[in-house]
Amino acid sequence: MKLCRFNDGRLGIVEDGHVRDVTAALDALPAYRYPLPPFDPMIANLDAVAARALELAAAAPALPIDRVRLSSPVANPGKIVGAPVNYQKHLDEVRDNAALHHNVASTMAPIHTAGLFLKATSALVGPGDGIALRKVDRRNDQEVELAVIIGREANGVSAADGYKYVAGYAIGLDITIRGPEERSLRKSPDSYAVLGPWLVTTDEIPNPGDLNLRIAVNGEERQSSNTRYLILGVPELIAYASSFYTLRPGDIIITGTPEGVSPIQPGDVISACIEHIGTMEVRVRAA
């Protein structure tokens, strides 16, 4: 199933180029009162919401996908976890290009040494929101990544059990300002984490470790690779992250980007595609 959020909080099922409006399925969510839970309620109750959405789908109005404004399929993640230099060829290009590494040792270290990093949840947007670049006097880069959406609480889990904690997958864009500062600062401005175009449930992606992914800017291909080249795959990243902190429903892991990162600027149009998920277009502007 492909579930999207669109037009200011509506819920849809994506089928054959259309969105079926199943917003009423959100009635399956429990009521929460303050203090609100530290997780995304829809993702925590995804099975109930999806079952109700399927009941409503046949009679639901269908809107052309190009007529709706797509939001992030996750509204309230507790954290966005990033995996730096998780493709060997990307690590090689970072080491070879001073414009990328700025002589910062952690930037040039493999993921086993560099570890993971957190992006601010305030950076999260959907493809319909676009990217608003800050520090336009500096290099801002596009990075396409497979995004993993956590479906249930994970704390100290093994890689062998990692897939059990996944609710679904999406395309992630990890936008990055180049410079000497810590990664989390340079990757956390508003709109620098794009998630979309929808959430694809795990039954539609039996092997996330073998997905083609690519990105083009203004029609020019910049990145093209396959998730088989990840240094740490999806279950290993879940195990790694959960060894440091608890993962909760709606938390997002962006798994790293392959080689080919390159600058973007206001006016650009980014097209990102991952096999079995889809394609999303994102427009770039100045903040």
Give an account of the 3D structure:
The chain is an alpha+beta fold. The protein folds into two domains: 2-67, no CATH class; 80-286, Alpha-Beta Complex (Fumarylacetoacetate hydrolase, domain 2). Helix content is 17%, strand content 32%. It contains eight helices and 19 strands. Strands 1, 2, 3, 4, 5, 6, 7, 10, 11, 13 and 16 form an eleven-stranded mixed β-sheet that branches. Strands 8-19-18-14-15 form a five-stranded mixed β-sheet, with no helix packed on it. A hairpin with a 3-residue loop joins β1 and β2 (10-15). The longest helix has 12 residues, at 46-57. The chain is globular and about 55 Å long.
Question: What is the compact description of this entry?
Answer:
This protein has helices at 41-44, 46-57, 88-96, 98-101, 105-108, 111-114, 183-186, 234-242, and strands spanning 2-6, 10-15, 18-21, 62-64, 80-82, 117-119, 124-125, 131-133, 140-142, 144-150, 166-174, 176-177, 193-201, 212-217, 220-226, 252-254, 262-263, 269-274, 278-286. The chain has 287 residues and is α+β, with helices and mostly antiparallel strands. Strands 1, 2, 3, 4, 5, 6, 7, 10, 11, 13 and 16 form an eleven-stranded mixed sheet that branches. A five-stranded mixed sheet has the order 8-19-18-14-15, with no helix packed on it.
Looking at the structure, what is the overall shape?
globular
Chain-averaged pLDDT: 95
- First-residue to last-residue Cα separation: 34 Å
Structural class assignment:
alpha+beta
Cα radius of gyration in angstroms: 18 Å
Strand proportion, as a percent range, falls in: 25-35%
The CATH top-level class label of the largest domain:
Alpha Beta
> Percentage of helical residues?
10-25%
Please provide the count of β strands.
Answer: 19
Please describe the biggest sheet, giving its number of strands, its sense, and whether it closes into a barrel. 11 strands, mixed
Counted by DSSP, the helix tally is 8
Number of domains: 2
Query: Going by CATH, what is the homologous superfamily of the largest domain?
Result: Fumarylacetoacetase-like, C-terminal domain
Q: What is the H/E string? A: EEEHHEEHHHHEEEEEEEHEEEHEEEE
